[in-house]
Design goal:
Layout lengths: L1 H22 L2 H8 L15 H28 L4 H24 L40 H4 L2 H7 L4 H25 L4 H25 L9 H8 L17
């Protein structure tokens, strides 16, 4: 377990470095610029039905329904209770942490920035605060957590049901990346904002998984066969002995 945790910490550190480099590169801006119309000085898909209703509200409601499904399984199914409860707690905790970090963020959304028709100034993570940072509250992406939070399914099922764990991981990846694409198209977030959400969600679930492993009761050793016989079929007497050897003449 210690080796696994060490690998997770090193992997998270390396992923954070990559996301930080990507967020400070021109590529992050270029992806958002693809959805921006200089002529309109706006993001045309910001309020479109496909992105604002189906992509934004629809994905958020789907995430809530899936979470309620986890909770329902935890309440009614004893064989799956531990895994379903683990998944529900992990998803809720990860989404709550991402949303809380977003509420404290000083980074503004693309549609608030001067480069995309707004007035706010962009600044990198750990960079100096500009004169007009804008309204902030945009990093990490809260919407992407509705998809990436399902990573908790992977951690909940990875020990006993690896196929279900991989299916949960794939579902979280697909919904999370779809949420990133929708929000980039709307001008609501940079792609890096969604990647930071994925990082936060994974880190929270690693910590929860390690805690659940510590709280998991140790398996009881099997009862030896002889001991089982003594418990269920107590011997009537001591074992029979052979005849005593006779003495000499």
């Amino acid at each position: 377990m210690r080796r696994w945790l060490l690998l997770q910490v090193l992997g998270l550190a390396f992923a954070a470095l990559l996301i930080w480099l990507f967020a400070g590169s021109a590529l992050d801006f270029r992806l958002s610029a693809l959805a921006y119309s200089p002529a309109e000085r706006a993001f045309p898909l910001r309020d479109a039905w496909l992105t604002a209703v189906a992509g934004h509200s629809g994905l958020k409601h789907l995430g809530v329904l899936l979470w309620l499904g986890m909770l329902a399984v935890a309440l009614v199914s004893r064989p799956w209770r531990r895994e379903a409860l683990h998944a529900a707690i992990g998803a809720l905790l990860a989404a709550a942490v991402a949303t809380h970090l977003r509420s404290m963020s000083l980074h503004s959304c693309p549609w608030d920035l001067a480069q995309f028709g707004g007035s706010a100034q962009w600044f990198p993570i750990f960079g100096a605060l500009p004169a007009d940072p804008g309204p902030g509250r945009c990093l990490p992406s809260g919407h992407a957590s509705s998809g990436f939070a399902l990573v908790s399914l992977y951690f909940a099922f990875r020990d006993g049901h690896p196929r279900l764990a991989r299916a949960g991981l794939a579902l979280a990846g697909v919904l999370g990346l779809l949420a990133i694409a929708v929000q980039v198209a709307r001008g609501a977030h940079f792609a890096s904002h969604g990647l930071w959400t994925a990082w936060v969600v994974w880190a929270v679930n690693v910590a929860l998984y390690a805690l659940m492993r510590r709280l998991k009761p140790l398996p009881q050793p099997p009862i030896p066969l002889d001991a089982d016989r003594e418990i269920h079929h107590p011997a009537a007497g001591s074992p029979r002995r052979g005849p005593e050897p006779r003495g000499g003449p």
